[in-house]
Amino acid sequence: MSQFNLKVAFTSEQLGILYATGTNVIIAKSSDGRPPSVAWQVFKPLQSNTVSWKEEYGIYASTAPIRNGAVLSQLANTPIGIERGKQYILQNYGAISGPHDGGFPNAFIFTNQYAGLPYITAGLYQNASVNGIDVTNNAISAIPVLMQSNAIMTPSTTIYIWLQSQVVSNSVVTMVTSPMTELKFGGSITDISITYNSASGKFVPAKSSTLKSTSDQPFNYIEPSL
Fold first, then answer.
1. Neighbouring residues of 158: CB distance < 8 A, sequence distance ≥ 6
2. What is the largest CA-CA distance in the chain?
């Protein structure tokens, strides 16, 4: 099972500005080929920060609306580390059962058979460690699933990082106020080190010997989306 590590560095001057403005680091992941819509990890940075995670997932169900700022409280979930290529069913009694046969390779199928609501918000969640502190059960995706309908959930190893205030972990974020830096983990790329560039508002590969990126891939950038 792959473990990925992201190191993020700031200068003392940058940290002073971030703290004065209430700005945090936001990390999100894409799913099903869609742009990120959930703030997976949000934290106040130190000079040297490390975020680590493994490629294992769970499925959750929530009644939270898919609206900017909505916190994705889990009302039902599977354990972390469920099997890919299988189907997981939100039963009418309110729990998620599975694994069942009938999935697709490298994806999870979620079926909503809960009759108590016209639709359920569902998605994948993933655990991480942020500066040595375990952060569990935070969502990485959120989609509405009608009753008696299916959702195919295909996780990605690509992450997005940016700076923003008034965003909390495990919440829907559809309004992004600063450039996002896209980082492509996967395959031989398990460790990436970056620093913040104040002039561009973006993250760039670290140049110091203590924070040397193992990635030769170019970084992609996405402009703010309001």
1. 29, 30, 182, 183, 184, 185, 186
2. 57
